Amino acid sequence: MTTITLSWGDHPIDLEDVDGRTFLRIGQNLRVDVTDASLDQLDRLADVAADLADKQRDRYWAADVADQVAAEDGHRFAGVPAQRQAAA
Description:
Elements: E1 13-18, E2 21-26, E3 30-33, H1 39-72, E4 75-77, E5 80-81
Antiparallel strand pairs: 1-2, 2-3, 4-5
């Protein structure tokens, strides 16, 4: 089995219909033919997408918590301490 890694960031995700076939377009470089996909497979795809969104929300939440803790400890953001200015 070959694994292809593609990062699409915030590029559009759309459905395309071409010559009677249906494709899931992810970004500019990936098009998946879903014409013959069963309803079960399409439902599973929707479930996986929902799980992925939940996982990303968790990552954002964890990063936000780390930034908040760092700020409380006198850091501007995680890993980089605030630069103190000399007092006059």
